[in-house]
Amino acid sequence: MLDSRRNISLACALSALAGYVDAIGFLHLGGLYVSFMSGNSTRMGVALAEVQWASAAQLLGLIALFVTGAAAGSLIVLGHGVHRQPWVLLAEAMLLAAGALANTFELPSAAIALIVLAMGLENAVFQIKGGAGLGLTYVTGALVKVGQLAAEALRGGARWAWAPNLLLWAALVAGCVCGALVYHRINLSAIWFAAGGALALSAIVAVTVHR
């Protein structure tokens, strides 16, 4: 997937967007995630062990919404062939904007639900028909690839093959920093900037696809 400057740039932009949104969700939910479902799964397991049913149910709800968003993104991919990316990004922008609007009308639970759907959907941007795609809202896999490709480089393989995955991780961290800073100033309204970013990316990708 990370085989061209165009794909690397887009993947890093989306990873930064995911980090931005996840930091906002993390702060708003008091330590829960809107895009990192491994973390939520661990917390749900702990909650079940400690018989904290309400917390476990909340976490299960977040996970289910994320999976639903991922499924919706896959449906868009399956329906639009090679020109799928702008449509996925447009759908993400609309979900994020709807989440920001829900917050404006003082519906924070609805806002979070829409944000989680958007994060699940984003992972379909690089999906290939008939198979999985590139994870953009979590970077555990990217860090594993950094280590694996670095080992190959030490044994005479491609010298810089690990770098794009490290950039993906760095982009997510940078997005988290920005998301936290903006959240501390304007709370959940910070999602408006994420919606604008996703919309801008949709337009840019649409132009480059037609070229």
General description of the model:
Helices cover 76% and strands 0% of the residues. With 211 residues, the protein is mostly helical. The chain has a single domain (8-206), classed as Growth Hormone, Chain: A, CATH 1.20.1250. The longest helix is centred in the N-terminal third of the chain and has 28 residues, at 53-80. The chain is globular and about 55 Å long. The two termini are 20 Å apart. The model has no long low-confidence stretch (mean pLDDT 90).
What's the topology here?
Layout: H1 5-28, H2 37-49, H3 53-80, H4 84-104, H5 108-122, H6 140-154, H7 163-186, H8 191-210
Give the gist of this structure:
Helix content is 76%, strand content 0%. By secondary structure, it is mainly α.
Low-confidence stretches: none
Rg (C-alpha, Å): 17 Å
What is the level 1 CATH name? Mainly Alpha
CATH architecture, by name, is Up-down Bundle
Beta fraction of the residues?
under 5%
Total of domains = 1
What's the pLDDT, averaged over the residues? 90
* Tally of contiguous helical segments: 8
Query: Can you write the helix and strand succession as a string?
Result: HHHHHHHH
Protein structure class: mainly alpha
Largest sheet: none
Named CATH topology = Growth Hormone, Chain: A
Percentage of helical residues? Answer: over 70%
Count of extended strands: 0
Shape: globular
Distance between the termini: 20 Å
